[in-house]
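Step 1: inspect the first sequence and its tokens.
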Amino acid sequence: MLWSTVAGFFSDLGDFFSGKSFFELAGYTWNDLMKLASEVLLKNPSEGVYADTWKQIQNIYSALNSVAVTLLVLFFVYSFCREAVDLHTEMTMERTIKLFIKLIVVTNVMNLALSWMPKFMGWAKTLTSAILGEAKFGFYFDGVAVYDAVTGASGWGALVGFLTALLFFLFTCVCGFIVIFTILNRIIKIYMIAPFAGIALSTLAAGGQTAQVGHSYIKSFFGYVLSALLIAVVIVISTTFIDTISIESDSSVVVLLSYCLKMGAIASSVKASDAVMQKAFGL
């Protein structure tokens, strides 16, 4: 009885280090990482587990608000003086009223910016949830079949099978963690720019080229928020995209490389979501 238990233990240990387990574990690990990525993607950076962090952002915003108000006054005075000394146009009552209307609008935008940001992020979460839907991550990798093909195609046998399986498993983990890291980095980027909303938006009172700072800020914020939609699309198609092997080959190594290339493409696409959003929508 004891001998059979010991023999069974070493047999299981041998199967584990043979490489078969690493091949199969790679598929399960990828599915789990994609599930985790979708869960993190659906988190609102201002609510739930991130509520305390958002309170710190609000505190920083309040501390910078005095600077923002001062800049608002300076930019308004600059805009008024620029219009007043313009020799090509006459400073009429209508233009003066327009300047003050712009001042009122910018003041309200500055005051409401931080309170509206969670609403925009909530809307992005709703759209992201609609894209993800009931996404099923059913990527399955026949580790035993691939292991037998790898070991049978090489004179090194089990050694090559183990090393290949280990490298494939590690590559799968790296690509999956890159996806999750990019999603977390998106949240950090929102936190980085949110406290400076008042300072950036105060430039809108100046008009002209100076106001481009405020316009760029608004575009950047919506770019970071809406990039979740592009990431959601990549996550949804990840399983079917990986399973669609376009390379027809009897070589198991070529098939493995195809899997690696597609996992790398998914990870790099998620990482480039900000750039794609900016290029496609001008944000």
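Step 2: inspect the second sequence and its tokens, then contrast the two.
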Amino acid sequence: MANKGKRYSEARAKIDRERRYELAEAIDLVKESASAKFDETAEVAIRLGVDPRKSDQMVRGTVLLPHGTGKSVKVLVFAKGEKEIEARDAGADFVGAEDLVEKIQGGWLEFDKVVATPDMMGLVGRIAKVLGPRGMMPNPKVGTVTLNLRETIGEIKKGKVEFRTDKGANLHVPVGKVSFDREKLKDNIVSLIDTVNRLKPPSSKGQYMRNMVLSSTMGPGVKVDIASLKE
């Protein structure tokens, strides 16, 4: 344990808190500084030049990470009839309607993502106060209210993640595990950056992507040189 703490301290000491590192170097530093007993998640935090108080400057979307998140995602689907069968065939972990609403109202939350067919949204609205604060409420803007269950469930299982700006105009997005090799993490991060850039609101003025930090679950943050992402 002492050796592990020493390794962490040595890795942290290598990080210049004022310097902005090229992406490849930042990834190596984050991988090196991860010292937990579990496989930590690598996460990107991006500060955007938007005003999240204005609806036309809210940045929200999804990205299908080329190499996934490294996490097994449990998908719950609200559907009936043929769509219920489609959801089960597509690999959904839980499928139902009123029965699932009752379970969730009773405190059950053993799932990660929620998808619903449009006709189920009236029912899902009963648990909006439970799902909403956890970022699980189905939303057509990110494709989780849909009739195309097979494709949607497949993409979520492969590593499709949602993101949206918080009150401070920041995005926090998981981009894989620290056990991923450098190139896989780099591919995932570049895919995220490309997607965020495409979603730049027309009304956003000045520099759009202002700061970016890469970190692991338990590790220190490493500032990334945004200019290096354009290479």
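Step 3: confirm your contrast with the notes below.
The beta strands are 41-48, 60-64, 75-78, 94-96, 113-116, 160-164, 170-177, 209-216, 222-223. The first strand starts at residue 41 and ends at 48.
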